[in-house]
Structures are given as C-alpha cells and as structure tokens.
Amino acid sequence: MIILGIETSCDETAASLIESKRGNLNVLSSVVSSQTAIHADWGGVVPNLAAREHLKNLIPVLELALKQAGKSKKDIDLITITHGPGLIPALLIGTNSAKTLSYVWNKPLLGIHHIEGHIYANFIEDKISASSKSKVQSLKFPILCLVVSGGHTQLVLMKKHLDYKIIGQTLDDAAGEAFDKVARILNLGYPGGPVVAKAAKTANNLKAKSYNLSFPRPMVNKNNFDFSFSGLKTAALYETKKNPKLLKDKNYISAVAKEFQQAVVDVLIIKTIKAAKEYNPKTIMLAGGVSANKELRKQLDKAIKKELKNTLYIIPSMSYCIDNAAMIAVAGHFRWKNMSPTQKKKALNTWKTLQADANLKLK
Ligand code: KG4
Ligand code: ZN
Fold first, then answer.
1. CA distances from 115 to 123, 323, 334 (A)
2. Ligand 1 atom closest to residue 323's alpha carbon, by position in its atom list
C-alpha cells in the first residue's frame, strides 16, 4: 500500500510517499521545503506569509515527492493530511489541496493530528536489516512519549496504538518556544533550537564559571508531571539586562545558551523519569522538533540506562524530528490499519467534511 502524506501546519511545506509491505514501512520520498529563512526577519512565523509560501511551494514539493519515489498518482492508495493543530492560514492550504486531490483522484483521505505524526516519526526506520529484529519492531506498550515541539510540551502515555492519555503538559510556553525566545534575547536568530544548541556547544567551561549563571529548574519539585518554561525565558532576559554590553561577548552568549539548554534538559528528564517510575512504561520515546536536541537525546538515554534498566528508549531519526510529511503518512498507516472496511469506504468521502482546526485535540 502506498500512502501520500502532506504537511503544512507551520513553516514547512512537506510531502512524502511511504510504502507499507507486510508490516514494514519504507519511506520512498520525504520532501521538505523550509520557510525559516523567510520568517527569520520577523523572529518567528508570520501566518499569512506561511500560507502564501505553502501555496507557492506545495505543488512543486508534491511533484518532487512523486518523482523521487518513482510513482504517479495511480499508485497512491491513501492521502493523509495534517488538519491541526497549527496556524489556520497554513493548515487551510494543505487541507484544501488534499481534499481536492482526494476528490479529483478518487482516493480515500485521512486527517491526521500533527502531534500524532510527531509521535509516529519514531516508527520510521531509515534502514531495517532483514536479519536482525529492528528496535521499532521490538518496542512494547505501554509507551511514555515526551512530546517537545514549538507549540507543545506534553508527557503522553499510550497503552496501545492511537491511544493517548496526556499525563502532564506545559502550563505556559512550550520547550521549543522557550528556545526560540531565548535565541531572540541573545540575538542568535530563528529558529532558536539549533542556534542555541550550537552556541551552547562552544561554551568555554572555565569562562562560563566566571559569569556565575544559575537558572531555575521550574516545577521539578512539584508533585505532578506539568512543566513551565516562561520563567526560564524571563531568567535569561533578566540576566542579559544586568549588563547589556556582555551581549557582544561570544563567550557570555555561549554560557547563557548552555545554562538555559541544560535547565530545559534537566526539567524534561527529571519529569520524564518521575512519570516513568509512576506509570512503568516498557518504552520511552521522544517526539517533536526539540527531540533533535543532541544533549536531550544523549542525557535522557543516560538517565534511562541508570534509573530504568529494563525500559527501551526510542528516538526519531534526525531527519524526522522537525516537521515532515513522512510522519503524517506513517500515522495514517496505523490509523488505516485500525479501520473497518466500512470506515475505509467512507474515507472516500472525507473530502466533503474534513476541516482544518487550529486547536485540534489529541485523541
Ligand atoms: O516540531 P517542530 O518542527 O514544529 C512544531 O510542531 O512546533 O518544532 C519546532 C521547534 C522550534 O521551536 C525549534 O526551535 C525547536 O523545535 N528545535 C530545537 C532544535 N531543533 C529544532 N530545539 C532544541 N534543539 C534543537 N536542536
Ligand atoms: Zn511539529
């Protein structure tokens, strides 16, 4: 079965073709056209600008995805599209395009929750060797998934496929949003995650000590699994206001970036381990754009090995951490598998009813 995925919820226009064959998933193509350079001037995503770019880029991206996969429209068995959450002007371009393709090509259509896509990015394996059992094939439920993106920070418990219980979430900013805001404070550009991580990597430990930085680890002592990151951004802001001249000092910028990143990573890890000790998942997964953060990937691995000896740890490949359409198609594969023949038939008419929903809930 060949599934087309389309994603336009934020500032990436993406299309992908995946093939599912006897339970194995193979990404045939995954094309992502990023608009970050366009939004960088504004320090964040401008919704109407994003919509204009999606409109311009979606057809070429789709054509390229088909070409790279060596397929044509007749090969496609199912169309999947992100229908929320996200920026409404951006979502509307993707959903209306997918609805039109479904109608004109007479193919079934499924709307996918963006975060469900991020979670299912963990089920994409670049190369599965036939002889050894893959990590994904051996993963077991329940799964605890730490979702960390530009719009979401959640701990999600999955007892089975497509079953989500949110056991904790941010009360204010998302982790990625905090990276973006601190990058702006440090004049590092947009998107914040990669540039803050890069600056942190070059921090000189000896010099960093002399700045005496110590940011809080918000909510770690609270008896729940919720997060709060807006105070951390404020801590970075106050710190840099003390002596604005220091913002010209590369060593200082790196030191602030490092301390901020470590504070975020500490909080995420402490809460995830705490939640795992209470809910005893067999697998822990990472999902969303911030899962590209190397320190988070590495330090969570270390903490799980130390504190949760029998828990499997799965992370998405780097190319599927930030927004892409392969993750949407893969989530679509699991949804399709779960549907009755009648529901599958009805999906031919989804184009009549599918709506973009900026605040779509994960369920
Ligand atoms: O999942 P995503 O591509 O879009 C949303 O669904 O929001 O996530 C984007 C977020 C941005 O806030 C970006 O700064 C952050 O992910 N991000 C990172 C890294 N790469 C992207 N944060 C920390 N470290 C990174 N390496
Ligand atoms: Zn995303």
1. 14, 10, 14
2. 3
